[in-house]
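Working notes for the structural subgroup meeting. M.R. asked for a predicted model of this chain before we commit to crystallization trials. I am recording the input and output together here so anyone reviewing the notebook later can reproduce the run.

Input as submitted:
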Amino acid sequence: MRYAARPDDLARAHQALAEVSRLRLLEVIRAQPAGLSAADAGDEVGLHQSTARQHLEMLVEAGLVVREAEPRTVRGRPRVIYRKSAQTEAGGGDGYHLLAGILASMVESSVHRPASAAEATGRAWGRSLVERPRPLERLGRREAESRVVELLNQLGFEPEPAGGREGRRILLHRCPFLDLAIEHRSVICSAHLGLIKGALEELGLPADGATLEPLVTPTLCVSRLAS
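Returned structure, recorded in token form:
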């Protein structure tokens, strides 16, 4: 795949997508060709309309989303609709998949034990991103696991908790970086495992025994939690 994005475009895209909420907003906008209002997009990701609008405007500035007035045939002020930009439509021009691919290649080629390095980095991010307990709060296992699932949902993995004889599992029905996971599996999947371990660790659950089975089916990865 060829990428024509300029370095300054990639820098703006990277800055805009450094926030999980903006990444999720971009995902829901991309899934709606007709576009969404700030209120509707906010509802999709659990944000207030004004907060969603602020994030969407940053995506507009980065060239990842376009803002336009909704056509109306009746009197009244038209709604503002946000749609994916032609740059995003082109595939890869949105920058974050390209940046992830560049970083994955760099890790594979220049880092000793790249899978371990990717897992350690993912673990640090998992600890920082999960909703932490309040001071002196002690979480039960079910509540702690639900916070890990919510983090994975915010990141676009479409997680589903599962139990049974095989133990506690999280079924991941979608990988936001599937194309990169196929090409750079050891790095991308290790980073995702580290993300899960870091979140578990932050919430006081066993982390070292957690595993991730990539692409059990073409649309499913499975994370097994430690007992």
